[in-house]
Amino acid sequence: MKVQHYLGGIENLGPVDVEKRVFVEPWEAQLFAVHTTMMGTGIWAWPDLRVLAESMNPLDYFKYRYYIKWLGGMCKFLVSRNYISDKELEEKTKYYLDNPEAKQPNAGDNDVTEKVIEYFYTGSNPYRDVAVNPIFKTGDTVRVKDMPPAAHTRLPGYLRNRTGIVETVYKGAYLYADNVPTDGICTAQPVYLVKFKTRDLWDDIPDKGDVLYNDFFEVYLEAA
Amino acid sequence: MSDDHDHEHHHHLRESETYYAARTKALESLFREKGLIGTDTVDRVINFFEHEMGPFNGAKVVAKAWTDPAFKGRLLADANKAIAELGMRDGIEGENLKVVENKPGTHNVVCCTLCSCWPWPLLGLPPYWFKDPVFRARIVREPRGVLSDFGVKLPDDHKIEIWDSSAQVRYFVIPERPAGTDGWDEEKLAALVSTEAMQGLGLATA
């Protein structure tokens, strides 16, 4: 069991840190831009980052700020895929630690820039307009399966083994990813919007009539 | 210096903002040398999310929906198609948008308990609170407690609808139009709409 898959519903955590900024240090914006460059040029995609986040020591996952985790994940990925070597990364890091005002090398491929911006506008649509025969229909009662642990999942822990009602059967099919190991979402399949009463998920909360919606890939559901 | 001490020192150095900044500079620098990035890419990307893809897009959509019921109907039915009417492009993390509407008695909140899925074309990049593990843990079980951390108190009889973005749809909330704004133009209305309000963690107020 990976704690990262089971965040929903954890109690006694104290107040939310209502930090409304996107970046709290200038290096985070720079790192983010390198990350989007990696996405826009096909070096990696979200699932690669998620696999790394989900494989972290869970205590570290809670301990470190969002972009600190990204920094660790990006370096690990780039070295493991031989885009850069650990040695040159260490040397360059030391160089910039010793020379904090040193400029970036005046080199690079400026064609990358528009490619990345265009990627922001095209995205990578997971929708597949293929004929599918969804197993469930609107109004069906479904049970969420408890899938075996995987390197990457899109099935929140707090909904496993729970029962809800299909609210919407989305048109067509969606592919999650085909480049990382998952628990069954590497093929295009129907996706369902399922409705739960939160009081059915946690019977010790006040009954306010609240509901929760979650989208499920078909492989995560069974008839109830 | 003993090995242990040396290790501690090294560890400490690797957990400072100075270290993270140097490490990030090292990454961009290696990318430049290897031709994996341009000299202007970082600045262009940062500028893009400051001026082209940000919460100002979502606020414009909300203001239009408040003033044009027919547009709101089309937005609720097919958000990607409707925003194109405003000359707005969708894209990354917004290929499949779904808009929901706050109404008297019903308040919507959006979360991503597994990571940080967020409707980029309408809101730009997610702020820190959305990615906070504490937010993600608590919002599904105790939404009123979380709203209180944001300074929001709903009337007692309001029901909450929570949208956990676990697959491929990205959710966006039209907040309730505040009283006393009759006759306001779209630009003035858009200025009332915060990022938080467009995910249900804030209210629009005049």
Overview of the molecule:
The complex is a heterodimer of chains A (about 220) and B (about 210). By secondary structure, chain A is of the alpha+beta class. Chain A has two domains: about 5-120, Cyclin A, domain 1 (Orthogonal Bundle), CATH 1.10.472.20; about 130-224, SH3 type barrels (Roll). Chain A has helices spanning about 25-40, 45-55, 60-65, 65-80, 85-100, 110-120, 200, and strands spanning about 125-130, 140-145, 165-170, 175, 190-195, 210-215, 220-224. In chain A, α2 crosses α4 (about 65-80). The longest helix of chain A is centred in the N-terminal third of the chain and has 15 residues, at about 25-40. Chain A is globular. The two termini of chain A are about 25 Å apart. The mean pLDDT of chain A is about 95. Chain B is mainly alpha-helical and about 210 residues long. Chain B folds into two domains: about 5-40; about 55-200, Alpha-Beta Complex (Nitrile Hydratase, Chain A). Chain B has helices at about 5-15, 15-35, 40-50, 55-65, 70-75, 80-85, 120-125, 130, 135-140, 145-150, 185-190, and strands spanning about 95-100, 105-110, 160-165, 170-175. Chain B has a two-stranded parallel sheet. A two-stranded parallel sheet of chain B has the order 2-3. The model of chain B has no long low-confidence stretch (mean pLDDT about 95). Classes of the chains: A alpha+beta (about 220), B mainly alpha (about 210). At the A-B interface, α1, α4, α5, α6 and β6 of A face α2, α3, α8, α9 and α10 of B. Chain A: Belongs to the nitrile hydratase subunit beta family.
